[in-house]
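Q: How would the structure tokens look for this protein?
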Amino acid sequence: MEWNGILTAGFTETWEVAAGVLGLRTLFANAAFIGRPGSDWILVDTGLGNFAGSIMHTAREQFGKPPQAIVLTHGHFDHVGNLKELLEEWKGTPVYAHPLELPYLTGKEDYPPADPSVGGGLMAVAAPLYPHRGIDLGAAVHPLPEDGSVPGAKGWTWVHTPGPSPGHISLFRPEDRVLIAGDAIITVKQESAFAVITQHKELHGPPAYFTLDWVEAEKSVRKLALLDPQVLLAGHGLPMAVPELSPALAHLCKTFKELSVPTQGKFV
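A: Here is the predicted structure in token form.
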């Protein structure tokens, strides 16, 4: 299965990732729609800011109604960028996140500033420009159920995958082994502007400039590899599926420290 990249598609692009799973790229960060066309659905992450219109347009075309819930893999700026605008439009829609992520979503804590010293390219050099303040969703945000279920998405489970942030999660559908990984695993070297522009596809750990805990990040990659996913939609980069995915994920596990962990930085 082949998916196109930024140079051929402009600022946004949609992909049918799997049955009932649609991906939407907002410049360099992805959101996911889970649900069959015309049926109930949920939104996973909200992408980079200034793309609320694209998300709402896709939602109207595909489903014709607001989502049952918005589930956040984590609260970094390029995953919650349109959240407040969407909640204005979809009043009363609940937002769910891991309990450890709630301080950043209720205005109680800020993320550490992104770290340009990790190197790797112009996206890392520009890291001081990336917003890192928490947002305050107030009563709209709720902790995910402790039993691992995903509100509004029957057949899906959430998996705690810390490293990029303390409460980072990924979503998995065991029936056909579809994985929505957030930033736990990405399919582009996010530190490189050239790789982001061309969407050169290769598996990596989380974006180095934002990752707080590399030990946990590696554990999270290995945890997801044990699920043996057949289709991957990451928070950054193009979707990836078998037969390409399995050897790439095995290689990432084997070479994680060399491939993903920077040689310098505040959190290395």
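The chain is about 25% helix and 20% strand.

Residues 214-225 form the longest helix (12 residues).

Upvote if useful.
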